[in-house]
């Protein structure tokens, strides 16, 4: 801590250093030598006395220091400060050269043989103002290398002075031109860079024959980048210490993230960690930010502007919804690790906050208690609590099975609100469209499913065959499935098309009527082949990684895993395992936790399973 004693000692040391260095020069540059000598000798016009006055030029060091301080002072414009300095240097050089050249003419013994005496013989009788203007006129015309020829050197002294003066002018001119060029180029560099970018983009579009719409998007992007360059201070912020950057980000982005629906109820420490990774961005109108079916991308929060959610139906783009200030988009694909269901395109000039998916994952891993809150907010936004009635329960520990970034079966439910809009074809219970074949057992499922019904959760589904006979006109059988959840019970109809009435009537009953409330299980009258076909359809969109159980692996090293499509039965899975690992003969399948698997339905998409040889 500084004390009065320390300050006093520091002041004494600084003054002692000044007295031993520049003090004597400052005294000589300010001392009135001419009045002092005139007081004692009564002679003040001698040349020796006038030479002593040249010591006053030391004050130029103080003037240079003054301009250096002004250039660093943000209260003054840097451009005009530099221009003032250059003008002052030029005027001072012109003044000194004119005065020194007049002194040579005044001291020359033959006045008529001087540069001014040749055109003005009695120049000493002229007024001081006339002589000064004449001297400045000669100095400026010589400095600018104009040289009209009306005033020129007449004797060797003046010629020698003109030689050194013109050599000095070469350096001064280079200094002035270099500084002015630097100022002008620095002021117009952004505009020149922008024009070069526009020209390059136009040439690229013309050379590759790009559509006009794409060319306009490219040009609008560069225009917006040029206009908003002053608002993007990423380079400046990166040069600041982490503590200052954290305070700036907290002040700018914390209130915005707190108002977002996804972060309602999460801890302040979670948002404080996430706010450091937020990146502000600007997008012009009609620019695609996220494309449909694109992989998991970042999350965007709208600060100002509007973004359209666009889907493609039969090759035509249609606006599904519009998100505005304070809304988020991209969170479904990013959090659930599924392809993006929509294309997000700006409707107007928009300012967005981009949240990195990787940084969000790290923040969630550091704050596991906020994972359930985020998942609850996401499900509430997608209006899925009727499909997951546990959401409304006081104890939300169940949400651990819906862990973000790895949502097993529920990712199909998250896509369900959008599939009814984007898919016009029929789908079955596994969200897979079966293609009808030519055989008698081929069928086509036509969906008539309620929009928000959870048909993926088949824990309480009852099947019954319609009482009526086959419709003679449409040749259809109807199988009714009553799907009951804990909140509602509705019916929907699946129509099975048969190619031959006789063949269809002779087949075994596919699904029989079950008692209400009984658990969902295959009826004794259900054909095993049909059940296996349904299981195959259900698992067709699952991929798993198979391994050899380490304790039974042959060789010195363990075999690498292999990614396969999950078949419809365990027998087929074991058969595939024997094909993939020829020297290994598996008989059982176990999970990563060494639990035996005896039902193909419990295997989820992305699971790692191991073959066991006994």
From TrEMBL:
Q: Does the keyword Membrane apply?
A: yes
Q: Which Pfam families match?
A: cNMP_binding (PF00027), Ion_trans (PF00520), KHA (PF11834)
Keyword terms of this UniProt record:
Ion channel, Ion transport, Membrane, Potassium, Potassium channel, Potassium transport, Transmembrane, Transmembrane helix, Transport, Voltage-gated channel
Give membrane topology per the record.
Answer: Multi-pass membrane protein
Q: Which residues form the Cyclic nucleotide-binding domain?
A: 262-381
Keyword Repeat recorded: no
Q: Where does this chain mainly localize? A: membrane
By its UniProt entry, which InterPro entries does this protein fall under? cNMP-bd_dom, cNMP-bd_dom_sf, Ion_trans_dom, K_chnl_volt-dep_EAG/ELK/ERG, KAT/AKT, KHA_dom, RmlC-like_jellyroll
Q: Which residues form the signal peptide?
A: none
Could you state one GO cellular component term attached to this entry? monoatomic ion channel complex
| Entry function | Potassium channel.
Domain notes, please? The KHA domain (rich in hydrophobic and acidic residues) present in the C-terminal part is likely to be important for tetramerization. The segment S4 is probably the voltage-sensor and is characterized by a series of positively charged amino acids. The pore-forming region H5 is enclosed by the transmembrane segments S5 and S6 in the Shaker-type (1P/6TM) and contains the GYGD signature motif which seems to be involved in potassium selectivity.
Protein name as it appears in the record: Potassium channel
């Amino acid at each position: 801590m500084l004390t009065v004693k320390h300050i006093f000692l520091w002041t004494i040391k600084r003054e002692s250093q000044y007295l031993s260095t520049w003090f004597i020069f400052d005294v000589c540059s300010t001392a009135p030598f001419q009045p002092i000598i005139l007081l004692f000798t009564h002679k003040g016009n001698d040349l020796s006395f006038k030479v002593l006055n040249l010591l006053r030029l030391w004050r130029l060091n103080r003037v240079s220091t003054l301009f250096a301080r002004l250039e660093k002072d943000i209260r003054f414009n840097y451009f005009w400060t530099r221009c003032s300095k250059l003008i002052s240097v030029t005027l001072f050089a012109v003044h000194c050269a004119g005065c020194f050249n007049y002194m040579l003419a005044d001291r020359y013994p033959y006045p008529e043989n001087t540069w001014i005496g040749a055109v003005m013989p009695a120049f000493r009788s002229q007024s001081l103002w006339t002589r000064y203007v004449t001297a400045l006129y000669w100095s400026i015309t010589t400095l600018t290398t104009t040289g009209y020829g009306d005033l020129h050197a007449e004797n060797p002294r003046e010629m020698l002075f003109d030689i050194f003066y013109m050599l000095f002018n070469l350096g001064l001119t280079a200094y002035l031109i270099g500084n002015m060029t630097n100022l002008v180029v620095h002021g117009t560099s952004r505009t020149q860079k922008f024009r070069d970018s526009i020209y390059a983009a136009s040439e690229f579009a013309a050379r590759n024959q790009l559509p006009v719409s794409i060319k306009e998007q490219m040009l609008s992007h560069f225009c917006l980048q040029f206009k908003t360059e002053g608002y993007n201070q990423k380079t400046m912020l990166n040069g600041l210490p982490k503590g200052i950057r954290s305070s700036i980000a907290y002040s700018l982005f914390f209130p915005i993230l707190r108002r977002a629906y996804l972060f309602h109820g999460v801890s302040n420490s979670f948002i404080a960690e996430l706010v450091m990774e937020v990146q502000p961005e600007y997008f012009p109108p009609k620019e695609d930010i996220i494309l449909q079916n694109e992989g998991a991308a970042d999350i965007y929060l709208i600060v100002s502007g509007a973004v359209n959610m666009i889907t493609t139906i039969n090759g035509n783009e249609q606006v599904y919804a519009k998100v505005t200030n304070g809304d988020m988009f991209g969170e479904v694909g990013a959090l659930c690790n599924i392809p993006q269901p929509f294309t997000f395109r700006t409707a107007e000039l928009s300012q967005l906050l981009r949240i990195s998916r990787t940084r969000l994952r790290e923040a969630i891993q550091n704050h596991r208690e906020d994972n359930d809150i985020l998942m609850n907010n996401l499900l509430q936004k997608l209006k899925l609590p009727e499909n997951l009635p546990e959401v409304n329960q006081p104890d939300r520990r169940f949400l651990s099975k819906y862990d973000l970034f790895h949502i097993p079966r529920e990712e199909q439910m998250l896509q369900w609100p959008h599939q009814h809009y984007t898919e016009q074809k029929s789908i079955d219970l596994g969200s897979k469209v079966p293609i009808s074949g030519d055989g008698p057992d081929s069928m086509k499922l036509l969906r008539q499913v309620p929009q928000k019904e959870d048909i993926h959760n088949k824990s309480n589904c009852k099947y019954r065959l319609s009482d009526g006979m086959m419709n003679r006109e449409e040749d259809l059988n109807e199988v009714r499935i009553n799907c009951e959840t804990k909140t509602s019970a509705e019916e929907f109809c699946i129509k099975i098309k048969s190619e031959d009435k006789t063949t269809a009537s002779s087949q075994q009953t596919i699904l029989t009527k079950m008692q209400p409330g009984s658990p969902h299980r295959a009826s004794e009258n259900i054909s095993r082949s049909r059940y296996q076909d349904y299981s195959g359809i259900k698992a067709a969109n699952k991929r798993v990684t198979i391994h050899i159980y380490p304790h039974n692996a042959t060789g010195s090293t363990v075999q690498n895993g292999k990614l396969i499509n999950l078949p419809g039965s365990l027998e087929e899975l074991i058969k595939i395992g024997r094909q993939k690992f020829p020297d290994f003969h598996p008989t059982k399948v176990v999970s990563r936790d060494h639990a035996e698997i005896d039902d193909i339905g419990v295997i989820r998409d992305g699971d790692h399973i191991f073959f066991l040889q006994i």
